[in-house]
Amino acid sequence: MTHTAPAAVRSVAIAGSGVAALAAAIRLASHGVAVDVFEQQPGLPALGSGITLQGNLLRALDELGVWDEARSLGYPFDGLTLRAPGPGAPIVAELPDVQTGGPDYPAGMGMYRPDLARILAERAEAAGASLHFDAEVTGLAQDDDGVDLEVNGAPAGRFDLLIGADGLHSTVRGLIGIDTSPERTGMGIWRAFVPRPAEVVRTELYYGGPVYIAGYTPTGEDSMYAILVERAQDRSAVGDDEAHRIMIEESQAYDGPWNAIRESLAAGGARVNYTWFTSHLVDAPWNRGRVVIIGDAAHSCPPTIAQGAAQAVEDALVLTELLTGAEALDQGLWDAFHERRLPRARAVVEASVQLGRWQLEGNREADPGPLIFGIAQQMAVPA
Ligand SMILES: Cc1cc2nc3c(=O)[nH]c(=O)nc-3n(C[C@H](O)[C@H](O)[C@H](O)COP(=O)(O)OP(=O)(O)OC[C@H]3O[C@@H](n4cnc5c(N)ncnc54)[C@H](O)[C@@H]3O)c2cc1C
């Protein structure tokens, strides 16, 4: 249903078309705000890897009207299995997950990233948002009443607000003079999108052995993604065949479902990619006048508790809840936004970084359980 927009934001431009951007677009357009989404890529990602959506993100998808469709495509599960390297992949622990979205949603769900992107984009367009591709936000000028946007070097209109949801290397962040940017944490991750062996029904992680973490998460009846987290290296020159070979070699210590994963990798054709972990947190304020950054533009962390996308979407939902409920775009609104978002994003970034650091240091005294459980309980309280 379309609601009437308050006079404070009648038109909003959004840079980026990731989860943060599309969540904001859906909420604003559904309230009758004119929304233009500018994405530098030629289209939505057609290929990609998997993603783990925690319960608090699943609840957010429901608020956005896409939960049923997402659930029909993804692979919901509860609990987390920890295994050790060596013959038989011995199970070390079966941990119950906190249902961070409340009792109505599973603790987590694996999903193919391009499916999530498509569902959100379709919902945004159905709500009335206009999506523009091949449209890179390159400049802006603002005064008390609005923001003049530049896209691909040319004027692209005047808006009441610009939301910079343009990811890790955000252009908008730079354009408003914020110089905090992502720093590498020292870990790198291989991800392979492969067929799901029937025995894989939830996320399973292996600690110990030649890499920091080996694991996999089901993303659908026939698919899952497998990960190997290693000390970060320059892998930029590694081609597909070599990437398969490295993942096969680095996973030799892991038995169980890893045997099937190695077979899939050896058969070739599995999509494999490599990414460095980063972290950063922009201190308040995330806005300068009528321009605000959200999602990875404002904070990033290693996916050690898989909360990055959840936090990005929570940023979007809190911001748009305030925007659609306010009479004016004033300091009170920005204060409320930062009060609700900063402590939560900070807790996730700090815990995620800490978990990675313990592993980098080889700290055997560390007890990650209480830290992970504490964050999950915090996330279970709606943003
Ligand atoms: C290896 C890895 C694994 C992860 N796993 C998980 C996980 O399992 N669960 C989880 O919750 N999170 C995970 N994350 C984190 C999650 O992917 C991010 O937090 C989330 O995707 C951020 O969404 P976003 O919308 O803020 O940014 P993005 O998804 O990065 O979207 C930004 C968009 O902006 C566009 N853009 C950039 N500059 C411009 C410009 N100037 N003009 C126009 N468009 C522009 C980009 O092309 C891009 O489409 C993981 C991250 C990594 C690195």
From TrEMBL:
Q: Look up keyword Transferase and say if it applies.
A: no
What SUPFAM superfamilies does this protein map onto? FAD/NAD(P)-binding domain
Q: Does the entry feature the keyword Oxidoreductase, yes or no?
A: yes
**GO MF term set:** monooxygenase activity
Concerning Pfam families, the annotation shows: FAD_binding_3
**What highest taxon heads this organism's lineage?**
Bacteria
Q: Which residues form the FAD-binding domain?
A: 11-351
Keywords attached to this entry: Monooxygenase, Oxidoreductase
Q: What is this protein called?
A: FAD-dependent monooxygenase
In its UniProt entry, the species of origin is given as Leucobacter allii
Kindly list the organism's lineage: Bacteria, Bacillati, Actinomycetota, Actinomycetes, Micrococcales
